[in-house]
Design goal:
Layout (H helix, E strand, L loop, with lengths): L1 E8 L4 E8 L22 H13 L15 E12 L20 E14 L3 H6 L12 H18 L3 E7 L5 E7 L4 H13 L7 E2 L5 H11 L24 H21 L7 E3 L10 E3 L5 H9 L11 H15 L12 E8 L8 E9 L6 E3 H6 L4 E4 L2 E4 L1 H15 L14 E4 L1 H17 L3 E3 L2 H4 L6 E10 L13 E9 L2 E3 L1 H9 L8 E4 L2 E4 L2 H13 L8 H9 L4 E2 L2 E8 L1 H11 L19 H15 L4 E3 L7 H14 L7 E5 L4 H11 L5 E3 L9 H7 L4 E5 H6 L1 H5 L5 E5 L10 H14 L11 E5 L8 H11 L7 H15 L2 H11 L3 E2 L6 H4 L5 E8 L1 E2 H19 L3 H20 L25 H15 L4 E5 L2 H15 L4 E3 L5 H13 L6 E5 H4 L10 E4 L6 H8 L11 E8 L3 H11 L1 H7 L12 H8 L6 E2 L3
Parallel strand pairs: 10-16, 17-23, 24-29, 24-30, 25-27, 25-28, 26-27, 28-29, 31-37, 32-38, 33-35, 33-36, 34-35, 36-37
Antiparallel strand pairs: 1-2, 2-4, 3-4, 3-7, 5-6, 8-9, 10-11, 11-12, 11-15, 13-14, 17-18, 18-19, 20-21, 22-23
Helix pairs in contact: 3-6, 17-18, 18-19, 24-25, 25-26, 28-29, 30-31, 35-36
Length: 1106
């Protein structure tokens, strides 16, 4: 896999496209050349062959390379980061360790690529994906993709003008030039120049030596060599200075805007023409109705032609060029030549006892708005360069005059002052001042002029009519804890700016002005705007103040985030809290303020510090009746944290009823084991199978229970039975299972939670708590987050329709950053997510963590397992010696295969299963189902995993299933893998940034001798029961060179020999490592009774959701 690069070439009207592979593609670069060939760049031929595969994989849209045949091959020299002493430049996205910084330098390399003409660049860049995840598109090319979208936005907003300029060939060329004079576009220009990748600026205009061209083909004959790349001796060469970002960006935008408008202009009639050939006819289908001057017609026609060259002689075009220059003089059209200052206009309120406003003229710095030069100073010093402090203004009078001319056209009230020899400002009536505030100030800024308003009019969020709230303790409630719907004690008052208003003050203020014509009023020396709709809302608010005004905790939380900060349509301009509400708000904003919780005494284990903080957070939200989503990375211990939380509730006497714990079928057994391990005192019921309790029987049994375990599918089937139990709380593990709000299981879970909230008992009970455990609260769409939050805190994010309109569509479709920030502030108090990469977490984690994952058996697995045991034991009883030993070991192999998947072992009279993978059904193997769920999280977190199995056939089956399930390639190395292919797989997994994140290995073929430190997860899907062998396999990832913590996951089927052998080895671990260290051979020596006990199937482990 390669990474696609590309960058605009300054002054050459083209984009250069190239690609670097993850491994060297050429042999040793010749040391005699000052600039060596990049050892990993694809040739132009290879690049042309690779690009269509990106379309097939969905990384590029088909239209992106529609004109691929028109892209020509070319060599370019580029400066790239290189570690001194290493013969290759750094890979895109490579991490440089701190100790390598002093070796980092920029070296020149020749790369071969494709030359994309300017007219074809928009199609290419629009065909790139917007998201940066999982695509082989480098940051430099992605940067130009975003810049091209800005160019399209300029065209859509008509921010371009036609120009005319002579060329070096002695002819005139018409051109569309972008206008970047507005505040928005200037801000974008600054942002893009700051974000431009350095690689975009280091292309060199060097001539490639003829001799070096000839040797390139010879060097490429070594392509694919797996040997080490030798160190290149770099010869000294003078590198050209990098391109100025603003100039490079200006050149690119000019070509993009010109190409787009030129294509559009080609389909439009010239002024005075009418269309003859119907819509879309070419210019030839137009006839002139009103004659244009030949020179003007020539210029306008050239604006729609491919080369833009005018046919008229230069001398004939001079008058037109002068007229265009006069027309364009007020506009700063080239960001590379902006003086750094613009004409600006400062509004001053009337003096006391006066009624006229004053608009002062001057110059304002573009990048530092505080630098102001009054017009009087500009006229007083008629110089080419005017100094103000440490700033210099070029042509100050010309800049001011040009701005005044533009301003007068936008705001007619200024026109009279232009007749003055040295205008420095003008007086405005109150109405004109209001028009400037509401309309013209923004227009000035959009056209590149400065507009400065008084603080109270500029910052209208702080200086507006609204209500000030002080929220206090919650109102008394029968519940021991609270909830989002709880009413709060609060005080309110009208305010304007920082002044409180009584009803009389408000009416007196209104009497001072006519709001219909002049909504600007003075209060306390500050001028503020009274918006008519807010005045009406304030009057309605005052009229209702004697009635019942309610403020819920839900509303208070929304107000603090700025979302829906209104009461009765009146904006909340200030919110303060005291007492318990202040404590809540402080803790939600700063989790460090939450009172810590120590590990409960009855917890059989030790929580790490970050886990104790998680338990404290869960406990805090439970006391307030707020739902919590614990979204820690996989392996950070969400399960023990939840169990410790339940014990903490019991210690507080808050576990007043059973807790319903809902999880996928594949982890029911694991939860049962973990509860027994960490909290053996908790009374647990596994609710599944055809003998599960139903109706009142479950309600009676639940009175003596602490936890009821159930699968998602059974919540829907047993909904009525579950509603009869007064649940103390509901916990959802792998809560992404309710991400589809329309699914039956999602709706059943939410209905059950709603019923649990309705307290009909004689003695009021606490509001049932709700917890969601997930490593991926959002997998694909924001609607998934809404569904989880709707379970945790119903109604908090509004209805699904409202959420889609207010958040999902603006964020997902249009990239609305403000909506994203608002949504983040709304949900952040209820989601706790810690990452393995957090420094505060890493210090609490061991370098290697081992987890035992217990999974049940499906009914078909249990049937096949029991049949094999019954059949084999009968034969074993009548055998002895080597034959008996062989039969036992053969049986163990088959039973382990059945624990993987029932069809891996054929039934009596059935043919041996093929290596060709059938379509696997995950519910047939809870172990496989759980693996798929965990790998989804591994891939989502950007991690990598090794999966070890003893069975090559199962490896083939698993590879096919996981590729379909994850939508990603999966590598598989087994005993039949040729050595060359084996080396390629390992090297690709280790070094290719785009390599598949999942690598399946057979234990014998891949358990030793490999270095796979890029993986930070190791899965032992089936067990060898030899600690030394399993540790050797784990050490493929956990070894020198590993820079991250490694998580080892060992799968065990409950109720089978896997669980019993595991328990036996754990109970005698030291002895087992000393004596039972040779694998499973010791099992062949067991007598028949001991063997029967070991192989006996525990029917309770069978998972049946029916």
């Amino acid at each position: 896999m390669a990474v696609l690069h590309g960058s605009w070439q300054l002054g050459e009207q083209a984009l250069f496209l190239w690609a670097e592979a993850w491994k060297p593609t050429v042999g040793k670069p010749p040391t005699q050349w000052q600039v060596p060939d990049h050892p990993r760049s694809l040739s132009a031929k290879e690049l042309k062959a690779w690009l269509p595969t990106l379309v097939e994989s969905g990384c590029l849209k088909p239209g992106a390379i529609e004109r691929l045949k028109d892209w020509s091959a070319k060599w370019r020299a580029i400066g790239l980061p290189t570690l001194r002493g290493n013969g290759t430049p750094l890979l895109a996205g490579a991490t440089v360790e701190p100790e390598q910084f002093d070796r980092l330098e920029i070296n020149l390399w020749w790369v071969e690529g494709l030359w994309v003409p300017a007219a074809l660049v928009p199609d290419l860049l629009q065909g790139l994906p917007l998201a940066a995840d999982e695509t082989p598109i480098a940051g430099d090319l992605r940067f130009w993709s975003h810049a091209a979208r800005w160019g399209l936005d300029l065209v859509a907003r008509a921010k371009a003008v036609p120009t005319l300029a002579p060329t070096a060939e002695g002819v005139a060329r018409s051109r569309w030039q972008p206008l970047l004079e507005g505040a928005v576009d200037r801000s974008r220009l600054e942002h893009f120049t700051q974000q431009m990748p350095s690689s975009c600026r280091f292309f060199q205009t060097l001539e490639r030596p003829v001799e070096q061209r000839a040797t390139a083909s010879n060097a490429r004959s070594l392509r694919g060599s797996s040997g080490p790349v030798r160190i290149t001796t770099f010869q000294p060469i003078s590198m050209q200075l990098p391109a100025v970002p603003a100039a490079l960006l200006s050149d690119f935008l000019g070509e993009m805007v010109d190409a787009r408008l030129r294509a559009t202009a080609a389909t439009l009639p010239l002024p005075g023409e009418r269309r003859v050939g119907g819509r879309g006819a070419a210019r030839g289908g137009l006839t002139t109705a009103i004659g244009l001057p030949p020179v003007a017609r020539d210029w306008l026609s050239a604006l729609g032609q491919a080369n833009g060259t005018c046919q008229s002689a230069l001398a004939e075009l001079v008058p037109l060029a002068r007229s265009l220059q006069t027309w364009l003089t007020p506009l700063a059209i080239d960001p590379a030549t902006i003086t750094g200052f613009c004409a600006a206009f400062r509004l001053h309120p009337p003096q006391p006892s006066a009624d006229r406003w004053y608009l002062e003229y001057g110059l304002q710095s573009i990048d530092q708005g505080g630098v102001w030069i009054p017009a009087q100073q500009v006229w007083r010093f008629p110089v080419e360069r005017l100094r103000s402090g440490d700033r210099v203004v070029n042509r100050p009078q010309e800049t001011l005059l040009r701005g005044l001319g533009l301003a007068a056209r936008l705001f007619p009230a200024l026109e009279a002052t232009l007749d003055l020899p040295m205008p420095s400002g003008c007086e405005l009536s109150a109405v004109e001042a209001y028009q400037f505030v509401r309309l013209y100030a923004q227009r000035f800024q959009d056209n590149g002029l400065g507009a400065l308003l008084p603080t109270s009019l500029r910052n209208q969020t702080s200086y507006r009519l609204g209500v000030r709230l002080l929220a206090g303790d919650p109102l008394a409630t029968d519940r021991p804890n609270l909830g989002l719907r709880n009413l709060l004690n609060f005080r309110w008052e009208l305010s304007l700016g920082d002044r409180a208003l009584s009803a009389q003050d408000f009416e007196t203020l209104l009497a001072k002005t006519d709001l219909e014509t002049m909504p600007l009023v003075e209060i306390g020396g500050e001028w503020v705007e009274l918006r008519p709709h807010e005045v009406r809302a304030a009057r309605d608010f005052l009229a209702k103040r004697q009635g019942n005004l309610n403020l819920t905790l839900d509303e208070a939380l929304r107000i603090t985030t700025g979302e829906n900060a209104t009461i009765d349509k009146l904006p909340v301009v200030q919110f303060e809290s005291s007492g318990a509400v202040a404590e809540l708000m402080n803790a939600l904003g700063d989790r460090a303020a939450i009172e810590p919780v120590i590990t409960p005494p009855k917890f059989q284990g030790q929580l790490r510090p970050y886990q104790e903080r998680g338990v404290a957070w869960l406990s805090f939200l439970e006391r307030w009746g707020l739902g919590a989503c614990l979204a820690d990375d996989m392996g950070l211990g969400k399960t023990p944290s939840t169990i410790a939380f339940l014990l903490h509730l019991r210690d507080r006497a808050a576990l007043v009823g059973p807790v319903l714990l809902v999880c996928p079928t594949s982890v029911l057994g694991n939860w049962q084991r973990e509860l027994a391990k960490f909290a053996p005192d908790l009374r647990v019921l596994l609710h599944h199978g055809d003998r599960r309790l139903k109706g009142k029987a479950l309600a009676r049994a639940a009175e003596d229970l602490d936890v009821v375990l159930i699968s998602y599918s059974l919540v829907f089937r047993d909904e009525m039975t579950l509603q009869s139990v007064p649940w103390c709380g509901i916990v959802l593990d792998e809560a992404q299972n309710i991400k589809n709000a329309e699914s039956k299981q999602s709706q059943a879970v939410k209905r059950l939670a709603a019923v649990a909230d309705d307290d009909t008992s004689e003695e009021p009970r606490p509001l049932p708590f709700r917890i969601a455990l997930t490593g991926t609260p959002v997998e694909n769409r924001l609607a998934e987050l809404w569904s989880i939050m709707d379970f945790l805190n119903p109604g908090y994010l509004g209805t699904q329709t409202f959420f889609q309109r207010r958040f999902a569509t603006p964020i997902e479709r249009f990239g609305d950053g403000a909506s994203l920030q608002t949504l983040r502030s709304l949900v952040q108090p209820f989601i706790l997510r810690r990452l393995k990469t957090d420094k505060t977490i890493i210090q609490d984690l061991p370098e290697k963590q081992e987890f035992n994952l217990f999974c049940g058996l499906s009914a078909s697995q249990a049937e096949r397992y029991q049949a094999l045991v019954d059949e084999a034991l009968a034969a074993i009883e009548s055998s002895d010696g080597i034959q008996r030993r062989g039969q036992i070991l053969a049986l163990l192999v088959k039973l382990k295969q059945v624990c993987n998947y029932p069809a891996l072992v054929g039934g009596e009279g059935e043919p041996e299963p093929s290596d060709r993978a059938p379509k696997l059904v995950p519910t047939e193997s809870p172990k496989l189902q759980r693996l798929g769920e965990m790998l989804e999280e591994v891939v989502a977190e950007g991690d990598r995993a090794l999966i070890f199995t003893q069975f090559a056939r199962w490896g083939h089956w698993m590879q096919a299933y996981l590729q379909q399930h994850l939508g990603r390639d999966v590598l598989f190395l087994h005993g039949g893998t040729p050595q060359k292919q084996r080396d390629t797989m390992v090297e690709r997994f280790q070094n290719d940034p785009q390599s598949p994140p999942i690598f399946i290995l057979s234990l014998k073929a891949g358990g030793t001798g490999l270095n796979l430190t890029r993986a930070n997860h190791v899965f032992h899907f089936d067990r060898w029961w030899n600690p030394a062998v399993e540790n050797q396999a784990t050490d493929r990832a956990f070894r020198i060179g590993q820079t991250r913590n490694v998580q080892v996951h060992k799968f065990i089927c409950t109720g089978t020999l896997e669980e019993k052998i595991h328990d036996l080895l754990e109970s005698k671990k030291v002895l087992a490592e000393q004596i039972v260290g040779t694998g499973e051979t010791w099992l062949g020596d067991l007598d028949t009774d001991a063997l029967r006990d070991l192989l006996l199937l525990d029917r309770a482990a069978i998972i049946e959701d029916r």
